[in-house]
């Protein structure tokens, strides 16, 4: 840039002395630049040789660099360099002693120390060499290219969604295949070990085979504990998965997320592409359907079809269930985690077995399935089935009116209040007759042969009553929660 300014002023007729004075450079330097310019222009005007033209062009347009390696420093003497290295070593010792702190030795402080010790050196020179001492050597990355079917990388990513008007935190379990550029993800309510296992089973089931190596970071689902600086004890559940499917486990070094390759960036990409524009859904299943549809679009250019031919032999799904035992309370309820679930009333006082999957569990008594429940997303909530209480209610029909199980089904509660208040036994009998019907068919069956004094159509009566009961049920839940907090405090 300075050469261009010199030549520009020279072409406008300014003298060497004037140019040197205005630009703050030596007059001899100005003369050298102008002479080289004149010489190049003469060659271009009179020469017909391509080589001469090329050389003259280079003289004009190429930026020139000068060898300053042999120049002697004037103020950064060997004594100053030794002293600055001592200060840098002391700074390292201080960091080890204090840990994270804000008393770092700055270039200004170093300059003050050197000046107090009698060294004549400018601040800019000190700042330049102090910055060089502190600057760490940047790490070089070696680009990897994996064969098809060899490697897949796994990670979790957090995403916030609004489900049925309520903001909830979910987790994306993501598999990234660097060779085929294929990505798979599934939405889970947590990152528990059962979810971790389920993600693997679903992924291997979907691709129809197994990769030779699965790469993880140091998440709790993978590493149980660290032994020394680099030794790690793997989670037993992961070991079982690895033995069953036959893949090798590769755990990255701590604080080395780049070793996972593509998956960490792909988690952010999937979250942005799938849920940045659309984040409100009627249910978790609706959100999962949306995710699946978006992944199909994102994977259109992948080579997953070719990669499937290179995968290891597919195996039947790994059994995920966890078995636990629960005692049935006098209210015919079992407690799982922080929620309550109903079971058939004849099991009161007995111990039942729960076979737990990521999204639901099955209840067994005497080795026979008696019921199953979807897991509740939340805490201190009930999931009650009125059919579990029919036998008891037939003996105690008066208990039906204010029962929690009836309030738990607002549509049934609405029908009961409209048409069966004085006929609880008839309501229970008809409920028993409609046991095999769907929910809509059940409501329709209970509504037949009923009379009402209201001028509204029956379905509108039920709908209005249902809304009222649901609102009342919400108020009860709020009161229950406040009472619970008060009693605990």
Automatic annotation (TrEMBL):
<protein>
    <submittedName>
        <fullName>IS21 family transposase</fullName>
    </submittedName>
</protein>
<dbReference type="InterPro" id="IPR036397">
    <property type="entry name" value="RNaseH_sf"/>
</dbReference>
<feature type="domain" description="Integrase catalytic">
    <location>
        <begin position="143"/>
        <end position="325"/>
    </location>
</feature>
<dbReference type="InterPro" id="IPR054353">
    <property type="entry name" value="IstA-like_C"/>
</dbReference>
<dbReference type="InterPro" id="IPR055247">
    <property type="entry name" value="InsJ-like_HTH"/>
</dbReference>
<dbReference type="InterPro" id="IPR012337">
    <property type="entry name" value="RNaseH-like_sf"/>
</dbReference>
<dbReference type="Pfam" id="PF13518">
    <property type="entry name" value="HTH_28"/>
</dbReference>
<dbReference type="InterPro" id="IPR001584">
    <property type="entry name" value="Integrase_cat-core"/>
</dbReference>
<comment type="similarity">
    <text>Belongs to the transposase IS21/IS408/IS1162 family.</text>
</comment>
<dbReference type="InterPro" id="IPR036388">
    <property type="entry name" value="WH-like_DNA-bd_sf"/>
</dbReference>
<dbReference type="Pfam" id="PF22483">
    <property type="entry name" value="Mu-transpos_C_2"/>
</dbReference>
